[in-house]
Amino acid sequence: MSSVTNPSSRVAVRRKNHEEPTLNRSLERGVEILRAFRPGADLLGNGELAERTGLSRATVSRLAQTLVQCGLLEHDGPRRAYRLAAPVLSFAHAMRSGSPVLQIAAPLMRTAAEKLRVNVGLAVADREEMVYLESIRYNRKVSLRSVVAGQRVPIELTSLGRAYLCALSESQRRELMTRLGQQRLTGWRTLREEILTAVQLFGKKGYCTASWQPEVVALAIPIVTPGSAIYVLNMSVTTQQSASEIEEELSAPLKALAGKITEAVRRLD
Q: Which residues form the HTH iclR-type domain (predicted)?
């Protein structure tokens, strides 16, 4: 992610959540410890966990030891640090295998990816990022970029994130964009204008386009399921063609695939 993140903004959001009277503070803080682990941050000590969560070192130490006892963290004694334990992976597997939307979408996505020789992904939002639930790679051009289930991408830069913003109410979108702006210390004004333009174009086109990686063009469309859960479907290719050319080629198949998934999900009720 090519941005400068302001840690204090995330800490402020977490502190606001901690003040919510209906939440169990200890449980929420424990979850924040688990959230601190990301690719490239697989081994974290008390100081790093405290910095990432906004919690005191004493609280981090107590919660981390509890998570070790629960089997969700492993303690590396020589390095005086923690890493995620295997049961966390089993939670992810249970989520993927138990998701009715993913069970419906995955085979339809694979068929479309094979037919068009493109990458097809499905993601949901988690705070200020999008998380891939599924990513089927059939790109027509060899690329070093690989995307797998569980990988996170920034909302503000990607077609996935911008399509998600388009599916929100105006007040929800404004609140999320405020948080995004607080995290970005540089370049936010330009990005904000790009997002607002994308929202306007979405009303005409029904999808969002972005090219935030070199020679990668992606189109995305939101799928709002019963209960108002928002999933976002995308198609992408690594190409030297222009974004407009890719839009002309993939917009209709993307809309058709989203329609099939939406209709199949609605039949579940």
A: 24-86
C-beta of residue 261 within 8 angstroms of C-beta of residue 105: yes
The answer to whether the beta carbons of residues 232 and 224 sit under 8 Å apart is no
Q: How far apart are CA 191 and CA 181, in angstroms?
A: 9
Q: What's the pTM value of the predicted model, to 2 decimals?
A: 0.87
> Tokens 């979405």 — which residue?
202
Alpha carbon separation from 41 to 35, 48, 159, 176 (Å, rounded): 11, 10, 26, 25
Coil vs helix vs strand at 48: helix
pLDDT digits (tens, 9 = 90+) for 213-243: 888 999 999 999 888 799 999 999 999 899 9
Q: Set out the domains of the chain in order of their start, with CATH numbers.
A: 25-85 (1.10.10.10), 99-267 (3.30.450.40)
Q: What is the SS3 string spanning 193-222?
A: HHHHHHHHHHHHHCCEEECCCCCEEEEEEE
Find where tokens 């998380």 sit.
131
H or E element that contains 181: helix 170-183
CB 127 within 8 A of CB 154: no
